[in-house]
């Protein structure tokens, strides 16, 4: 990915790797990074006096007694209490949180939308968020929301953090920069970003307009799935996740911080940039990940495995083996199974599945599911290939076949996903999507032999 200049006035640490000088590799590592030499205390977290007149402060992503605890120690120009003042409620009507049930919108159904079109109006990360579905309850910290973002304007001296959730960002068009308290993350299509709960950041447009998808996770944070019998390799490897090196701003300029808290938005005015962390260490950090490094596994003799084989990240629930959210990636791969119907089979599922198309063509829906589009198949509603996909897969010559130029994903949750008013009434719904199964034929004739 192209590297861009740092924002004016921001100073970044050296370090990282040779391939990614602004990033440190590894998932769940205990990272450390400092912009100024000696800013990071050694052998202890909270010295009586920090170097350079910095303040020591801990950001905890889990309870202190969690096993293992997730926390990061920061050494900053001002403590965060100086980046917080009296708050006033503001309204962001298109960003919704669960529970959110709209009485005149029917969530029970199989739905698909065309890409939400870009707008000529200036839209930032906050004003450009469009919630499609919500699930669970933000107040009890279970479930999720799925959004489409439309961003064409950088945030100017404006900052944000969510006390409700971590955000999984999946770009589809354009390049975004997340200037965070712990450093800078730039993301483009074929990459994702993970922004922890409580982390302050500013979102800038590097190349726009930008469109993509966001999974807002209210529950336990995302983690790599257990590989089980697959073993130590393939799928998403920890070394391919990149955390940013430290970067800070020392700018005294009127600024705002917006906080999402229990589904409501509050704003406070401050006199400086809150991105003033000069050094940090810990295991609670933002990440980026290159989706082309995901190594899929699959059947090499017969049958089609469950789509869970393509899980990239999972957020656990209180029920073992049943996720609060799974993030599942369907990318380029070889199909070689013998005597096998290779696309996803027809099924009903306890999980609710929201899919998005990043680019290319999805094998179970060769028509209509276009890049930037979204589909929803709610819990226990039947779905599967359309007629063209079924007939093609049932009658094709089953030699090795490369599924190429394709990348789609799924936000899957154990909770039913409720449509927002935007999804039901404003987003470009494909009213004829349900008819994609109308032409499936009755083939049963009661006589033996494969038809």
TrEMBL record:
Residues covered by the Homogentisate 1,2-dioxygenase C-terminal domain? 293-444
Its Gene Ontology cellular component terms are: cytoplasm
Does Iron appear among the keywords? yes
Query: Residues that bind Fe cation, according to the entry?
Result: 347, 353, 383
Cofactor or coenzyme needed: Fe cation
Give the positions the UniProt entry annotates as the active site.
304 (proton acceptor)
The record's GO molecular-function terms, alphabetically, read:
homogentisate 1,2-dioxygenase activity; metal ion binding
Q: Which UniProt keywords apply?
A: Dioxygenase, Iron, Metal-binding, Oxidoreductase, Phenylalanine catabolism, Tyrosine catabolism
Family (UniProt): Belongs to the homogentisate dioxygenase family.
Q: What is this protein called?
A: Homogentisate 1,2-dioxygenase
Source organism per entry reads Tritonibacter aquimaris
Tell me the lineage of the source organism: Bacteria, Pseudomonadati, Pseudomonadota, Alphaproteobacteria, Rhodobacterales
């Amino acid at each position: 990915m192209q590297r861009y200049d740092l924002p004016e006035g921001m100073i970044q640490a050296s370090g990282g790797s040779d391939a990614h000088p602004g990033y440190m590799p590894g998932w769940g590592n205990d990272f450390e990074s400092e912009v100024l030499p000696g800013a990071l205390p050694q052998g202890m977290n909270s010295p009586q006096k920090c170097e350079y007149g910095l303040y020591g402060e801990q950001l905890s992503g889990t309870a202190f007694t969690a096993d293992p605890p997730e926390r990061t120690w920061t050494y900053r120009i001002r403590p965060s209490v100086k980046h917080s003042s009296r708050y006033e409620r503001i309204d962001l009507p298109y960003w919704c949180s669960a529970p959110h049930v709209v009485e005149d919108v029917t969530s029970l159904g199989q739905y698909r939308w065309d890409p939400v079109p870009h707008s000529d109006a200036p839209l930032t990360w906050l004003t450009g968020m469009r919630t499609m579905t919500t699930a669970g309850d933000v107040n009890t910290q279970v479930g999720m929301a799925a959004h489409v973002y439309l961003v064409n304007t950088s945030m100017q001296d404006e900052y944000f953090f969510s006390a409700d959730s971590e955000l999984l960002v999946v770009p589809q068009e354009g390049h975004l920069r997340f200037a965070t308290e712990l450093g800078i993350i730039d993301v483009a299509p074929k990459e994702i970003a993970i922004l922890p709960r409580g982390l302050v950041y500013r979102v800038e447009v590097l190349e726009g307009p930008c469109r993509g998808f966001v999974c807002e996770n209210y529950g336990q944070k995302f983690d790599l799935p257990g590989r089980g019998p697959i073993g130590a390799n393939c799928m998403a490897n920890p070394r391919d996740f990149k955390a940013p090196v430290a970067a800070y701003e020392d700018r005294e300029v009127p600024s705002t911080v917006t906080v999402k808290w229990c589904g409501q938005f509050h704003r406070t005015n401050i006199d400086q940039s809150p991105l003033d962390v000069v050094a940090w260490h810990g295991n609670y950090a933002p990440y980026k990940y290159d989706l082309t490094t995901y190594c899929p596994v699959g059947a090499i003799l017969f049958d089609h495995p469950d789509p869970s084989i393509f899980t990239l990240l999972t957020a656990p629930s209180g029920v073992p083996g049943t996720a609060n959210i799974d993030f599942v990636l369907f990318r380029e791969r070889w199909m070689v199974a013998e005597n096998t119907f290779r696309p996803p089979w027809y099924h009903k599922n306890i999980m609710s599945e929201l899919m998005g198309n990043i680019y290319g063509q999805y094998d179970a829906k060769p028509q209509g599911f276009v890049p930037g589009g979204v589909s929803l198949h709610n819990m226990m509603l039947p779905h599967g290939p359309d007629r063209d996909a079924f007939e093609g897969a049932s009658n094709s010559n089953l030699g090795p076949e490369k599924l190429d130029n394709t990348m789609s994903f799924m936000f899957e949750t154990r909770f039913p996903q409720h449509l927002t008013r935007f999804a039901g009434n404003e987003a470009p719904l494909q009213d004829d999507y349900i008819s994609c199964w109308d032409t499936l034929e009755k083939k049963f004739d009661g006589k033996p032999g494969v038809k």
